[in-house]
Design a protein that fits this description.
With about 350 residues, the chain is α+β, with helices and mostly antiparallel strands. Helices cover about 55% and strands about 15% of the residues.
Amino acid sequence: MWMTIRGIYSTMVNRRGPNGRFKQAMSIAKPASLFAALRLTVQPLPMPPTARSSSIRKDADSAEPLDPADDDAADEQDAGEEKLRSGIQSIEVGFRLLDVLTHEPRAMMLRDLAQRAGMSPAKAHRYLVSFQRLGVVAQDPLTGRYELGGFALQLGLARLARVDGVKLARIALAGLRDRLDLTVGIAVWGNQGPTVVHWMESSYPAKASLKLGDVMPMLSSATGLLFAAYLPRSKTAAMIARELADTRRWAAANSPRTPEDVERVLDDVRAHGSARVEGMLLPTIHAFCTPVFDSNGDLALGLIALGHEGAFDIAWGGEVDTALRECAQKLSYELGYSPTPR
């Protein structure tokens, strides 16, 4: 601004001379015009770098300090949620090939494997090359057929070494109990016979007088019949013979009384894939016991569901039977069981 005023003054002096002519110019010029000129020529002065930095520092000092760790944590959480939602589609697509090989007992040609997995042979081949590098898939150098590789075996063995069937069953039965409001339990084979190791009551508990550690009879309970049907006879023969001899204690209205009756009942259990009793052990108490198998195809445990007559669906294929079978099949899968030979 001072440079502009000095320029105006210099122009007046140079044109009219130095003697009093500035006053004459000032008296001639209109005040409004002069001030308008001054106003138009005034521009904001740029702030020196040091002043601008100081101002920024003052603003930063007055603000609440930011924690970089908070930003990193928020970014990681957002990224994790996004990955959980989206996933990696190529892995899911490639897994279809592994799923086919898992359920196929023999090595497969590329075209058959690709067809079963729902993709072209060229696309399947690219995935198989990567799987071979990782050891998940192996290729026979003579026939060119593909099968699961050594690393797939290591994965399966690691899973089997860590799995706890009773723990998995407890979690699964808790959901079943809450969904159907059933009294449910878990039984395993102990040194005295089929033993209850877990018990969960419904909102209307059945008066079964069962507790943890109870050993169930072999011929008059659904649990005993299940273990008698699926365990080797060498494990159960002595207990079955003892119960047949002690008819005064164990015999119920419709329980087997002879070895022939026992075989007929056990054949029926295996034919249905589950054991069922209607008021045999306790009057008015009905029960199912459904098998859970391990990776060797052996009986690992039995899932129990029971309830009062009239409030418990005892029909084969009914709500209780179907729900218990679905639960047992999922658990058997978790334990490495396959209904077809591998």
